[in-house]
Design a protein that fits this description.
- The protein has 10 helices and 7 strands.
- The chain is α+β, with helices and mostly antiparallel strands and 353 residues long.
- Strands 1, 2, 3, 4, 5, 6 and 7 form a 7-stranded antiparallel beta sheet that branches.
- A hairpin with a 6-residue loop joins strand 6 and strand 7.
- The longest helix is centred in the N-terminal third of the chain and has 37 residues.
- It is elongated, with a radius of gyration of 28 Å.
- It starts with a helix and ends with a helix.
């Protein structure tokens, strides 16, 4: 029996790996432009990191789709070559070849659980936050060979006569609109001090000393602070959401009673569990669809595979809608429930015939 398991296990694993790599490469290529755009001022490694952060968001979808395609293609070929017929004729239960797909599905479920509960929330958090190295590179590139600095996100343009590190002297600042207390959007400043940047920086607090208004009589010899938001997300200002938190953090906030929307947090947790369970649920469904499509070929089997995928994403959409109307976190399990309702009679009839 182990030879039979190993035979199909190897084919499913190779097919799933190749399919996943191809799909992931397509996603990466499609996101290269976005990564380059959001890492302006950084180097190629910064663009690669941002692109990877966005691509990792599609990991659970690609994992599920590639495994289903691999299962359907492997066992459709086996059915067309009459391997499954020979196995049944030898008195071997169809559960034996199907267990190879189940074994891969359970392994992918374990991998998907770690990714959904820990790795992907971290990537989801970082893709909307500023990477400190990118910000430093922006200022390095703006300060070399130019006396003009465009401050990101705030609509401020600064020119200067000379500078020493992060301190600029004899500056002129152009603003989108006049700063409070001044009539002109143009300010003359004796000295501008830029702050240090680290991983937690979300706003530049720029210190201005000796400000003068060129068209008015107002001015201040003291220090004035201007906050400039750092934004490399393409104008998408956003606060921290449940998708940015690991599952243990979400559950901890709910159990301590500090989460503002506990039902929404539990829905997110259940939804992640549902995504992680998809490979294990799709393993018997893919096997039975492949055996059912034996006479019509692999293309027909792939078309049939769209049915469970469509049900899954339909349940994803309906679950989000039901959460808004019922405020019940159990709606997160709706995609798995629809798959079980679709797969149970299919597997029962196909495996017992």
């Amino acid at each position: 029996m182990w030879r039979l398991h190993r035979y199909y296990l190897k084919e499913v694993l190779v097919s799933a790996s190749i399919t996943f790599l191809v799909l992931f490469a397509v996603i990466l290529v499609s996101l290269v432009y976005r990564g380059i755009q959001r890492s302006q001022g950084g180097d190629a490694f910064d663009a690669l990191k941002i692109t990877l952060f966005f691509a990792l968001d599609s990991f659970p979808h690609l994992l599920t789709i590639s495994f289903l395609i691999a299962t359907v293609m492997t066992f459709t070929r086996a059915a067309q070559d009459r391997e499954l017929v020979a196995i049944r004729a030898a008195g071997v239960s169809p559960f034996v070849p199907m267990s190879s797909a189940l074994l891969v599905g359970v392994g992918l479920t374990a991998l998907g659980s770690v990714a959904m509960h820990y790795a992907i929330p971290e990537a989801h958090f970082r893709k909307y936050r500023v990477i400190a190295g990118v910000v430093r590179n922006v200022f390095m590139s703006m300060q070399l060979g130019s006396d003009r600095i465009v401050l990101p996100g705030g609509g401020y343009v600064m020119t200067y006569r000379e500078h020493d590190g992060a301190e600029f002297r004899d500056c002129t600042i152009y603003c989108k609109k006049p700063v409070a207390g001044f009539e002109s959007p143009i300010l003359f400043v004796d000295r501008v001090q830029l702050p240090d940047v680290d991983d937690t920086t979300t706003e530049f607090v720029i210190a201005l000393d000796g400000i003068r208004d060129p068209i008015g009589t107002s001015g201040t010899p003291g220090r004035m602070l201007i906050g400039v938001p750092i934004d490399f997300s393409g104008g998408e200002s956003r606060d921290e959401r449940d998708d940015d938190l690991r599952s243990d953090q979400l559950l901890g906030e709910v159990m301590r009673g500090v989460h503002p929307a506990p039902n929404g947090a539990l829905y997110t947790l259940f939804r992640r569990c549902c995504f992680a369970l998809m490979p294990a649920l799709l393993a018997p469904i893919g096997f039975c669809l492949a055996e059912f499509a034996r006479e019509r070929g692999r293309v027909f089997a792939l078309v049939l595979a769209l049915a469970p995928l469509s049900l899954f994403y339909l349940g994803e959409v309906l679950g989000a809608r039901l959460l808004l109307s019922t405020d019940s976190p159990w709606c997160g399990w709706l995609p798995a429930a629809l798959l079980v309702a679709f797969g149970a009679p299919l597997c029962w009839g196909q495996l017992r015939r």
